[in-house]
Each structure stands twice: as C-alpha cells, then as structure tokens.
Amino acid sequence: ASHGVRLVDAPVSGGPKGAAAGSLVSMLGGAEADLDEAAAIVAAWSSKIVRCGPLGSGDAVKAVNNALNAAHVLLASEGVIALKKRGVDPAVALDVINSSSGMSLQSQRLPQYVLSRTFDFGFQMGLMRKDCGIAAGLVETLTPTATLIPEAFRLMEAAEAEFGSAVDYTEAARLLEQRAGCELTSSDASSSSKREP
C-alpha cells in the first residue's frame, strides 16, 4: 500500500470452454474499493462476478470448488466401478444416476471423458492436485475433524504420482480402476441413450 500497489485475488471457474467464450465465473477477494475497480477489468472474461470476502477469499472458494469437482469425479468413478463389478454396464448406471438425485456436473461428464477413454476435459492433474491441497489445508486448519476433502486430496496426489502432472485430471478415475482391477468401459456405447418408454 505504501507504494500504491493494491491486490485482489480473482480466480475463475468454467473450464476451457468458458475461457474461450468469455463466460467464466470469477471469484473476487479483497477490499471493497479495490474490488470495485477490479470488477470492471474482470468483466472482460466473466459472465458472473462474485465478491467472496477479504483478500484470499476468492482463492479459498476456488480451491474448495475444485476439491468438490475432483471428489465428484472420484465418487462417481468409485460407485460405477462397483456397479460394473456387480454386472451393471457403466453407461447404463450413469444414465440412471444422471437422471436421478445422485447426478452432478462431473457424473454427467464421465461418459464423455472417462467411459470414452479420452480423458481430455482440459484441466491438468497438477493444477487440480494443487487446488485440492489448498482446500485440504483450509479444512484441516479450520475444521480439524474434516475427512472427505483431505481424502480427495490424497487420491489426487496419488493419481498425479502415478500418471504425472500434465495429464488431464479426469485420469484420476484410472487410479481407482487400477486399485479395483476394473476398467470403466461400456459394452454398448449406445446404451446410455436407451431408455424404457
């Protein structure tokens, strides 16, 4: 401040498509006066701007958001692996889940990025592990009884160690596949669209 420098944090969410379209969600943290000026700049790439609180708040929200993202991928993958071993085709399982209360944005993406074996959503494993680590540090400090976000971080850390930092974060599903000895492939690629009348 003594040098006339002010700071806000303004992480974003929305993925590669949102960045290309200029429709990202920006999470701002900082003093209100600084946020007023920053919002005018951030609007250039944002469809939504949220003032999260004091400096660092935007980064904290972003980290928790991404930890939830990773956890949803891991939970959906783990559940569908078990269902496949039970005899349910993964595409059929996800068709039901994605039409029901267990649906999440990430479970909706599993057919395109995991069942297809493309693993190409467009967000690197190392970046997701970093954000999960920030979220894990936050909850472990402020809510020491927390277990779920720290476990998601540990799994992303293990996936990064196994597959590298540069691969897509959806490859975390492969870690669970390896541990379970079961690959999330569908016997009928069109089965996800088959519904009873």
Structure write-up:
With about 200 residues, this protein is mainly alpha-helical. Helix content is about 55%, strand content about 10%. It is built from eight helices and three strands. It has helices spanning about 15-20, 30-40, 55-85, 90-95, 105-115, 125-140, 150-165, 170-180, and strands at about 10-15, 25-30, 45-55. It has a three-stranded mixed beta sheet. Strand 2 (about 25-30), helix 2 and strand 3 form a beta-alpha-beta unit. Helix 3 (about 55-85) packs across helix 5 (about 105-115), helix 3 (about 55-85) crosses helix 7 and helix 7 packs across helix 8. The radius of gyration is 19 Å and the shape is elongated. About 30% of the residues are buried.
How helical, in percent, are the residues? 55-70%
Overall mean pLDDT stands at: 93
Please give the radius of gyration in angstroms.
Answer: 19 Å
Structural class: mainly alpha
Strand-residue proportion: 5-15%
Order of helices and strands: EHEHEHHHHHH
Please count the beta strands (DSSP E, at least 2 residues each).
3
Number of helices, where a helix is a run of at least 4 consecutive DSSP H or I residues:
8
Summarize the structure.
With 197 residues, the protein is mainly α.
SSE map:
Layout: E1 12-13, H1 15-21, E2 24-29, H2 32-42, E3 46-53, H3 57-85, H4 90-97, H5 105-115, H6 125-142, H7 148-163, H8 172-180
Parallel strand pairs: 2-3
Antiparallel strand pairs: 1-2
Helix pairs in contact: 3-5, 3-6, 3-7, 3-8, 4-5, 6-7, 7-8
